[in-house]
Amino acid sequence: MESQFGIAHVWTQGDFVTRTVAIILLAMSVASWLVILIKALDIVKFKKYAKSAQDFWHSPDLASGMDKLGDDKANPFRHVVLEGREATAHHRKTSAHLHDTLDISDWVTRCLRNGINEFTARLQSGLAILASVGSTAPFIGLFGTVWGIYHALVAIGVSGQSSIDKVAGPIGEALIMTALGLAVAIPAVLGYNALVRGNKSILNALNSFAHDVHAYFVTGARVAVDGQISGNVLPLKKGA
């Protein structure tokens, strides 16, 4: 009787180690796809926030600008504006502390940078899972293949039958584990690279926005692209 190929046949004919390897690869695949889908939806959402952040500078005052940013607490651009406003108010009204040795520009920069760092850590969460899956899944699949080939050769030796039809089946089934490892690793690697590129574009937009917010709260004007003060000055006190 000919050997039947397929994952189901490998599962039914495999031992405890083979099934464990298959379960691990399945869990890694599910985890990586969940991370890819969740982080991809986050990137789409944050890119929409980045586009809406451009409308912030077309507002007559800070209050109306905040309305354009919305009320979603997960919006990093809204959070940057709130951090800048609170840092400015805190620096002006606080009693004597060590940070009073910093001028308002350095203090606002520090607060904005802390907010961006927190968002960066949240944005990059989960990428370690993809990196781990992409780097380890091929080797886990290869381990399953080596283990399967070993037991196939032992079984062939015990039976005393070494014809090609008796060898090809067990060896081919063992090689399926390597294919499974690659099938798990390739989407994880591609997803990791795509998410890193998406995160980079969002962080670039956020850093640029934070630079303008810093200039706004420190000088009362937005800094233009060429580094000069823009003529479109938004009054700080009107919306503060």
TrEMBL record:
Domain of life of the native organism: Bacteria
TM region(s), chain numbering: 20-41, 127-154, 174-195
Keyword Membrane recorded: yes
Keywords of the record: Cell inner membrane, Cell membrane, Membrane, Protein transport, Transmembrane, Transmembrane helix, Transport
Subcellular location: Cell inner membrane; Membrane
Keyword field contains Protein transport: yes
Domain MotA/TolQ/ExbB proton channel: 100-205
Topological type in the membrane: Multi-pass membrane protein
Subunit structure: The accessory proteins ExbB and ExbD seem to form a complex with TonB.
Family: Belongs to the exbB/tolQ family.
Biological role stated in the UniProt entry: Involved in the TonB-dependent energy-dependent transport of various receptor-bound substrates. Protects ExbD from proteolytic degradation and functionally stabilizes TonB.
Name the record gives this protein: Biopolymer transport protein ExbB
Species of origin: Comamonas terrae
Lineage per the UniProt record: Bacteria, Pseudomonadati, Pseudomonadota, Betaproteobacteria, Burkholderiales
